[in-house]
Write a structure and sequence with these properties.
By secondary structure, the protein is an all-alpha fold. The protein is built from six helices and no strands.
Length: about 160
């Protein structure tokens, strides 16, 4: 069954795509950078494997933020409700693009920055195992920008009349 959707709902779908696409791009690049540094650390010290996995997993959160906003947009735009919802107005659809852009672009920058920091932290822990906790803290600092984007996206969804 094909369901006709309006322009506003289509714009909401673009917002969902931007949210998850950009956030996952940043998260994936960040994880690749962190994994590359962690592989080097494990080559020097095989006991670094578990800590390397932790550093590699940290940039994943940006993808989660984008995924959550995308799901909210898909559900509240009517796309995932089987067409039983009226969908979004054009104005609400533009707000949805803003929400998707906020979390997507914030996740892109934050994920890459977090990956770079995590990679350096893995190398530092090989040299000094006491650097693990401090490396986690430095890596988590890059998360701040992703949280800003996620919060702005939520505020746009709430005050833009989507949620």
């Amino acid at each position: 069954m094909v369901v006709e959707i309006g322009l506003g709902t289509a714009l909401g779908a673009i917002g969902a795509g931007v949210a998850v696409g950009m956030a996952c791009l940043g998260s994936g690049i960040g994880q690749g950078i962190a994994a590359a540094g962690s592989v080097g650390a494990v080559a020097e010290d095989p006991d670094m494997f578990a800590r390397g996995l932790i550093f590699t997993a940290l940039p994943e959160t940006q993808a989660i933020y984008g995924f959550l906003i995308a799901i909210l947009l898909l559900v509240f735009s009517g796309i995932m409700s089987g067409g039983s919802s009226a969908g979004l107005t054009t104005t609400s659809g533009l707000v949805a693009i803003g929400a998707g852009s906020a979390v997507g672009f914030a996740g892109l920058g934050s994920g890459m920055g977090q990956g770079i920091t995590a990679s350096s932290a893995a190398g530092a822990v090989v040299e000094d195992p006491d650097m693990f906790a401090r490396g986690i803290i430095f890596t988590a600092i890059s998360e701040t920008q992703a949280i800003y984007g996620f919060l702005i996206a939520i505020l746009l969804l709430v005050f833009g009349g989507i949620l």
